[in-house]
Specification:
The chain has about 70 residues and is of the alpha+beta class. It has one helix and four strands; from the N terminus they run αββββ. It has one domain.
Amino acid sequence: MFKDVIAPIQAWLLSQGRCVGCGKELKEGSASKLKDGTEKITCSCGRIFIHDPKSKKFRRALLEEV
């Protein structure tokens, strides 16, 4: 039940380019390029995101990508 409430809020934050934990802009995080053309962004709170510049979307990183 709790996840049903939080998931839409997190999806909205990611669509705005903000961290789901602290709400800061993901542009301000440290970024590094990956082999497949995406960027790995680490927020100041420690959460790791993947940015696809082609589709201009953010998502949480999988355990394999960390």
